[in-house]
Specification:
The chain has 6 helices and 19 strands. With 293 residues, the chain is α+β, with helices and mostly antiparallel strands. The strands form 6 sheets. The protein has a 5-stranded antiparallel sheet with strand order 7-8-19-10-17. A 4-stranded antiparallel sheet has the order 2-1-4-3. A 3-stranded antiparallel sheet has the order 9-14-13, with no helix packed on it.
Length: 293
C-alpha cells in the first residue's frame, strides 16, 4: 500500500511539472485602461488649472506606445498634439523621462537625433507612468508656458495613481525614479501635493538666490539639504507681511530671529506659524521639503 501511494505521489508530481513550468514562464503584468488614461489626463489638467498654465496638450499612451487618450487645452497651438504623443511614446518605450535624452543631446551625443520621428522625441515633457514598479504607459505634454511646465504637468499626470486616497491615506506607494527626481530639482517642482485628503506634501525645491519671508499657518516644514549652502533665518518678525493665499503669509524679510548656515546633509524642522527666510542661497541650492499638516 505504501508503494502504491508513493507511486501515485510521484505520478502526480510529474503531471504537475508542465503546469508549474508554464506558470514560471508567465508574469503577471498591470495594464493601463482607458479609464486610467483619462485619470492621468484629469490629474494633469487639474495641475494646469491650479498653477495657471496657459495651455497644453496632454497625451497618454499604453505600454507599447499606442495612443489611448488626448486632451488639448484652450489656447494651445495645433502642432502640440503630435509633439505630446511623441514625448509620451518616447518616455514609455525607453522607460525614462524625455528630459534625460534632451540633456544627452545637449551634452554632445547628437547622433541620437537620427532616430526616426514619432519613435523618438527628445524634448522635455514626457514621463513614464509607473504603478507598483511596473511601467504601464507614458504621458507627454506640449504647449504649456515652458518646457519645465510641460514636464510638471506630465509628472502630475503620471502621479495620478499615487494620489488616490482611502480613509485619508494613500492607496498606493509613490515612486519617483532618479531621472524624475533630477528633473524636478532642475527648477523646483511638487512631487506630491496635498490633494485628496493627504496631510502632507513633498517638494523638490530649488533656489539660486534669496527668497521672501514665509509663514505657513498650517504646515510644518521638514527641510533636508541636498546640495549647496544657504543662510536661513527662523523666528523673529516678518517685514511687510501680506496674505498671499489661505493660511499663507509672505514678507520682504525678517527682523530678529535666529540665523543659521545650512549645508549639504543638514535637516531643519520649522513648525507651522514660525516665520522663516532664505536670506542667501548658493546657485544651485537644492533641498527636499516635506510639509506636514
Amino acid at each position: 500500500m505504501k508503494t502504491l501511494f508513493k507511486t501515485l505521489a510521484v505520478a502526480l508530481l510529474f503531471a504537475a511539472l508542465p503546469s508549474l513550468a508554464s506558470a514560471q514562464q508567465i508574469a503577471d503584468k498591470k495594464a493601463l485602461t482607458l479609464d486610467g488614461a483619462k485619470k492621468v489626463i484629469a490629474a494633469a489638467v487639474a495641475y494646469a488649472k491650479k498653477n495657471n498654465a496657459p495651455g497644453g496638450v496632454i497625451a497618454v499612451v499604453d505600454e507599447g506606445g499606442n495612443l489611448m487618450a488626448l486632451e488639448r487645452l484652450d489656447g494651445t497651438f495645433a502642432a502640440g498634439a503630435n509633439i505630446s504623443i511623441g514625448k509620451a511614446r518616447t518616455a514609455v518605450l525607453f522607460k525614462r523621462p524625455t528630459k534625460a535624452f534632451e540633456d544627452i543631446i545637449k551634452n554632445g551625443r547628437t547622433a541620437m537625433v537620427a532616430l526616426p520621428d514619432g519613435f523618438f522625441t527628445p524634448l522635455q515633457g514626457g514621463v513614464p507612468i509607473t504603478v507598483d514598479g511596473q511601467v504601464v504607459g507614458g504621458v507627454g505634454v506640449s504647449g504649456a508656458a515652458s518646457a519645465q511646465q510641460d514636464e510638471e504637468l506630465a509628472i502630475a499626470g503620471a502621479n495620478a495613481f499615487s494620489t488616490t486616497a482611502m480613509n485619508g491615506m494613500p492607496s498606493t506607494v509613490s515612486y519617483f525614479d532618479k531621472d524624475m527626481v533630477a528633473a524636478a530639482f532642475a527648477r523646483g517642482a511638487v512631487l506630491v501635493d496635498g490633494e485628496n485628503g493627504r496631510n502632507y506634501m513633498v517638494h523638490a525645491s530649488h533656489r539660486d538666490k534669496a527668497g521672501v519671508a514665509e509663514i505657513h499657518e498650517l504646515d510644518t516644514d521638514i527641510i533636508y539639504v541636498l546640495d549647496g549652502t544657504a543662510t536661513f533665518v527662523t523666528g523673529g518678525t516678518a517685514v511687510e507681511p501680506k496674505t498671499t493665499a489661505p493660511n499663507e503669509i509672505r514678507g520682504s524679510a525678517i527682523e530678529g530671529g535666529v540665523t543659521r548656515k545650512l549645508v549639504k546633509g543638514d535637516v531643519i524642522i520649522v513648525p507651522n506659524g514660525v516665520p522663516h527666510w532664505f536670506k542667501e542661497a548658493s546657485n544651485p541650492f537644492n533641498y527636499y521639503v516635506v510639509k506636514v499638516r
